[in-house]
């Protein structure tokens, strides 16, 4: 999707709608991109001492900042303050310091330019080093240079938790850490240049009920800090400097949106029962315990996916067993007797783990994080973290109806290893006489194509499957889920995806295990119709999608839908599948709830 400023009075940018709602307010430009070198200029002899002084002062200020950071380091990671010490040493290193001063004096160039030249020279040297670990230390040099540069140009990094005025955040990109730490009371919306529909940043925005548009490409260069903008999270549009008439128009739309939300909420507690009497489990995806109440308000009949990793991204420290146990127990108790499917840590990928508390683990910066040390791979490597979480989950299982699920399984070996660790943790609890649910069901996410190919084998070792289409689409169609350039290729109706889902569902049915789907597509009524017709037992989604999907369930006959959808694997193109579903769903697509929802829910069908 491209962002484009339209001609005429209204300047509008188009991006990807990821979290519904309309908000009118002041833009707050956050600079998270690298400091670019903008001013390259020659200086005369008299100016050299001034430039050298500027560079020295910036370096001193950067040093003070590091010393301060070091002083505030939490005790448990103090042992690793050597990382900051090494940054201090780099600042004093002659390759950086003396060389920059030299460039200023000899080549008569400004300090930023001179620093950049020093860095380029250091990079060339590092590039020649064979040892990967040492070569990667260049990143520390870059980080140090970036810090000095920020002082030179007077740009401080902003912390979203510290924003105290109502604002709409405009950023090149936001990490899930940023969104998780947002001052929710003050941040009324956000828009980014980067990002796609299923990026975790987008998912969090939806959970926090903050209107958001991503993938705008050039929002940060077109929007002025402090300017008034309108974010239309329903349509994926951003209006720049609106006139009075436009503001009034959008205020009206805002009201309509709120009216629609309250209408649909009224029916959210009706059961998800088809016309022919089948109950379908419509559940919620959550990231934090605080969302459980919202999930229930929206009519969730269980938690189909509890993304536990976000708890690890919050705060200064890696959470301990007691903290995790309290959180999991709370969720289990509030939902009981309904099920809570808790997923073990899915760190990595776009859930950035190289924040300071994880640096203890010496995780390498990865070229392809989505294909790297993510999810179960991370847990099998960092077993102490994994065991602590499993112990907390098992203990919480005694307080409700919990199920455990492992993410990103690619083959049987990972299941075996994870189950062996789980067994060990169970034994520990037995020994300590601590209660847990011995019958807790254990499942896996099917989100890597190899797991689809292996599904018949894997089904013999687990109690359920949960298909994660956000990643399955990413890995099967080879599209980075956070890259806006390829966001248009996110196609749940792609025949390859539909065939994979069908294959997994058929295998689950044949083996007698249940199969859920918890990707974003579950919240799209057209996708949900197809999934129910294919035999998916449970759909789990962002809470806000639940009322509409429950309404869909109440409007269909499951037997008829299954018969209709029967041969879906024979279709050749996404368009054919989409047209087929549209034709079958006719009356529902005409209903006011659906039509309004098109303005509200992001169209997940691509
Ligand atoms: C998925 O991949 O579809 C999924 C539900 O998990 P996540 O979005 O957290 O990767
Ligand atoms: Mg996933």
Can you characterise this structure?
There is one protein chain. This protein is of the alpha/beta class. The protein has three domains: 11-31 and 166-261, Phosphohistidine domain (Glucose Oxidase, domain 1, 3-Layer(bba) Sandwich); 45-153, Enzyme I, Chain A, domain 2 (Orthogonal Bundle), CATH 1.10.274; 267-604, Phosphoenolpyruvate-binding domains (TIM Barrel). The strands form two sheets. The protein has an eight-stranded mixed beta sheet with strand order 1-8-7-3-4-5-6-2. An eight-stranded parallel β-barrel has the order 9-10-11-12-13-14-15-16, surrounded by six helices. Helix 2 (82-92) packs across helix 6 and helix 22 packs across helix 25 (574-590). The chain is globular. The protein binds phosphoenolpyruvate and magnesium ion (MG). Magnesium ion (MG) binds at residues 407, 447, 468, 470-471.
Write a concise synopsis of the structure shown:
The protein is an alpha/beta fold and 606 residues long. It contains 26 helices and 16 strands. The chain has an eight-stranded mixed beta sheet with strand order 1-8-7-3-4-5-6-2. It has an eight-stranded parallel β-barrel with strand order 9-10-11-12-13-14-15-16, surrounded by six helices.
